[in-house]
Design goal:
Blueprint lengths: L2 E6 L7 H16 L3 E6 L11 H11 L5 H8 L1 H16 L4 E4 L6 E3 L8 E4 L2 H8 L3 E5 L2 E3 L5 E3 L4 H12 L4 E6 L20 E3 H9 L7 H10 L3 E5 L7 E4 L2 E2 L2 E2 L10 E14 L12 H7 L5 E5 L3 E7 L3 H10 L3 E14 L9 H11 L6 E4 L3 E7 L3 H11 L3
Helix pairs in contact: 6-8, 7-8
């Protein structure tokens, strides 16, 4: 059996016509000799009746006392609806399909409700259906604990479902279908000239997803990278070949990187806030306080961290500002918070060891009067923090500067 996993996002499933487009992709896989295993997200986006956000809103409005276990049971309903409806449409088209939830697919998780981690996959029932010539249509985003409780895998979790199934089934590849032609050099909503990247390695796409590009869940990339299962980002509504994500090797042959330049792409993340803690009046406290530990205990994620003898600087999500403010006031710490920031990140494995890239980045931003509040870099990324109202301009001038 040559299995291929095909995951369809919510925008691919909202209408009969759109589901027919998805069915065309499934039929094409069968014609090409593959046994498709399909993973589905909940239909639509926020505000639509069967979207996950709609169920979350219902839970929040109905009773704030809903337990995490019961909340997961509720918000897993969207994928069940998608699986049943797409299965019915496949059967009506003459294709033998069967709907399966996360438990039936053998996806076993821990009990971290709302953001569960996959412990193992027991794919026996999936294999049984495939061997019978059926197309399993599996609910994304969900699994089951060892005690039989339904769990959800966090936002974007259907991508994770597709990746872990690709690993467990030793799939030829995992295809992620969405409403764009592939991974783009930047957000096409900002950059009209953004181009599809035809091939990219796992690390680069992981960085793009982790730094704000809404293309695929970073955890799904991690799973695929560990198992070395190729990922392909495709458009349900076009015949574009999409973006191939691998280690740049497939069946022993090197995959061409094309004529890409220094950078692969640009990502952005809004709703950031910069926290500056000032120890200038009591510098010894900087070495004895446990502010970062306390933030971690509160479940507050921080990034772009810079630590000096007289200050600590880091960024947080805007939604955490009130809690951080209250903590720092209780600690009697001198601080300031700059709200409404955006993190802009350039990504490319080729920048490693190349001198002057950050200087070039800062120079073009300064030339365009875009104030940079903080910087950070790694082997394949350089990030800057700017005000939200200048974020789109920053993306545009960097896209032009590095000729993406």
């Amino acid at each position: 059996m040559k299995i291929i996993v095909q995951k369809f996002g919510g925008t691919s499933l909202t209408t009969t016509e759109r589901r027919n487009k998805a069915i065309e992709k499934i039929e094409a896989a069968r014609r090409n000799g593959f046994c498709p295993v399909v993973v589905v997200s909940a239909m639509g986006r926020k505000g639509e009746p069967y979207a996950t956000d709609t169920f979350i809103q219902l839970a929040d409005e109905t009773n704030r006392g809903i337990k995490a276990r019961d909340r997961d049971l509720l918000i897993s309903c969207g994928e069940i609806i998608s699986a049943v409806i797409l299965t019915a449409q496949l059967n009506a088209a003459g294709l033998d399909a069967v709907a399966m939830n996360g438990q039936q697919a053998g996806i076993v998780t821990d009990n971290n409700y709302g953001n569960a981690g996959v412990l193992k996959v027991e794919p026996k029932k999936i294999y049984q259906q495939v061997e019978r010539g059926r197309i399993p249509v599996i609910t994304g985003f969900q699994g089951v604990t060892e005690y039989g409780d339904i769990t959800t895998l966090g936002r974007g979790g259907s991508d994770v479902t597709a990746a872990v199934l690709g690993d467990a089934l030793n799939a030829y590849s995992v295809e992620i279908y969405t409403d764009v032609d592939g991974v783009m050099t930047a957000d096409p909503g900002i950059i009209n000239s953004a181009k599809v990247i035809r091939s990219i390695d796992y690390n680069e796409v992981f960085q793009m997803a982790d730094y704000g590009a809404r293309i695929i869940h970073p955890r799904a990339v991690e799973v695929a990278m560990k198992s070395n299962v190729p990922l392909v980002i495709k458009n349900t509504f076009s015949d574009s070949p999409g973006t191939l994500i691998t280690q740049y090797k497939k069946d022993g042959d090197t995959v061409s990187m094309g004529d890409r330049g220094l950078l692969t792409g640009i990502a952005h993340l809004h709703d950031r806030a910069q926290v500056v803690i000032d120890y200038s009046e009591s510098p010894q406290k900087n070495h004895t306080d446990d502010i970062l530990d306390k933030l971690a205990d509160m479940g507050i994620s921080i990034d772009l961290i810079n630590i000096f003898t007289d200050k600590k600087i880091f960024t947080i999500d805007d939604s955490d500002c009130d809690r951080v403010t209250n903590l720092l006031k209780r600690e009697g710490t001198k601080f300031c918070i700059i709200n409404n920031c955006s993190k802009i990140t350039i990504i490319g494995s080729r920048i490693r060891g190349v001198p002057g890239v950050m200087a070039r980045m800062l120079r073009v931003l300064n030339k365009n009067r875009i104030k940079v509040y903080q910087t950070a870099d790694s082997h394949a990324t350089i990030s800057v923090l700017v005000k939200r109202q200048q974020a789109e301009k920053a993306v545009k001038v960097l896209h032009d500067e590095f000729k993406l």
